[in-house]
Amino acid sequence: MFSVASKSKYTGPIIDHKLLDMASIQNKEIYQIESPEEMLAAFYAMPMESQVSLLKDKLKSFDKMEKTLDEMIEAYLVEDLVSLTNISTNFISKDPKKKFHRDMYFKHSIDIRNVVMAHYMNMPFLYGLDKFKGQGGTFVSVGAMHLPGKKGVLNLLEKNYGYKISRIEFK
Questions:
Q1: Is 147 helix (H, G, I), strand (E, B) or coil?
Q2: Three-state DSSP class for residue 68
Q3: Which of 39, 51, 82, 83 qualifies as a cystine partner to 75, CB 3.0-4.6 A?
Q4: pTM exceeds 0.85
Q5: Residue 53 belongs to a domain
Q6: How many domains are contained in the chain?
Q7: How far is CA 128 from each of CA 6, 23, 30, rounded to the nearest angstrom?
Q8: How would you write the pLDDT of the chain (171 residues) with one tens digit per residue?
């Protein structure tokens, strides 16, 4: 069986698992912002032509995926989220005819999901975050590629919902 999964040379803990462990140890309430079904739905909504094109591109660049993962981790470690995002699409052909598929990838895998996640973070009846608004005390973890830019979750929370976002040093 052939897998399109890749491994990195880095073998440290996965940050998501580390954050979950830390929250559990502190007896924090844990909520998910996005279910696996919602994540997959974003990709299912992508035009089939784009899905096929992106899969073909990934298969063509499969031998470079380990290097790509390593570069993504290195960008993450130096907190260069713009490079992290750019590196994540290295597998997509640079052919100008593929621009539509690249745009669809960002629209469905990042931009639309960012709007949904920001909305869910603001839904007090679902997550109870609103009771802490303005008081501190709420910690939310979101994948690094969802953070930067005008369409990033941080900007959406500040602009659309009035949250004050502050960075936590985690080293």
A1: coil
A2: helix
A3: 83
A4: no
A5: yes
A6: 1
A7: 37, 16, 11
A8: 345 566 777 777 788 888 888 888 888 777 778 888 988 898 899 999 999 999 999 889 888 888 998 999 999 889 899 999 889 888 888 899 999 999 999 999 999 999 988 888 776 544 555 555 555 556 678 888 999 999 999 999 999 988 888 777 766
